[in-house]
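Render ABC transporter ATP-binding protein in 3D.
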Amino acid sequence: MSGIVFQQVTKFYPGSERPAVNKVSLEVEAGQFVVLLGSSGCGKTTLLKMVNRLYEQTQGSILVNGKDTKTVPVNDLRRQIGYVIQQSGLFPHMTVEANIAVVPEMLGWERQKIDDRIDELLELVHLDPKIYRKRYPRQLSGGQQQRVGLARALAADPPFMLMDEPFGAIDAITRTKLQDELIHIQKKLHKTILFVTHDVDEALRLADKIIIMRDGEVVQYDTPLNIIAHPHNDFVKDLIGGDDIIRQISLINVKAAMEKSNKTKTYEKTITISEKSDLKSALATMLRTGAEVLFVLDENEYIIGHLSLSHIQELLLPHNQQNILRMK
């Protein structure tokens, strides 16, 4: 399975002299969670919607799983791409189970297979099928509607997912819970995800890589850690919060920063930290325990890597500051 490739993609809207998207070339690798980040009007949603041909590019090519999207019948293209929007897009006159069943029914799935899939997906998004299958969207909270919208997008098990600010209209507490669930789902399913947001914290928390856009162009495409440590310019630095390093590292997972090692069992007198923890927690543990090295544990309590203070400094500090620290 290949990912999504943009080749010199440009989009002009009728009557506009400036392109909404200007000569974008990049690759989203299969199985990666990539976030499109930028302010309103930067072109991120336009770029997203050209993938499933809700918008047609003016110039350039987009390849999905190795095929030029212009050569694939639009319905065939969209069947392999799940799509989630901010307001969930549920059909109000249909029950939860009917909403989730829409695409499987179009594909001619047998009834038992559809019913099993509905139960499986509702459990995946933490909604009890016995309680929620027969409910209508108006009987659900905003967060529950978004969960059902995600389940519907996953119904036919598409390899690709497009998500356009899906949590933008949700309160902060529910939003964090939905982010946690999406992280859990992605870890289990390994979809290729393009996710649009203008929320920097959301991008840093969710992404394997981030595409930062401005005026229709890609300013930087990199991992969250590299964007924090090495912003391409002042625009990127200001966008992610400038010098607020404490907030930034609280959003970076230790697994993204650790030095990997062969999986081994833990042993006595080692100071450990979960792979789900963040770098701020790792630093706090080092200060509290005096440990120079933390060993990172997976969900089965096996060591999968380690993290040292010097390694964190090398990752996060500019080279000139690293030299100053060494001199001291």
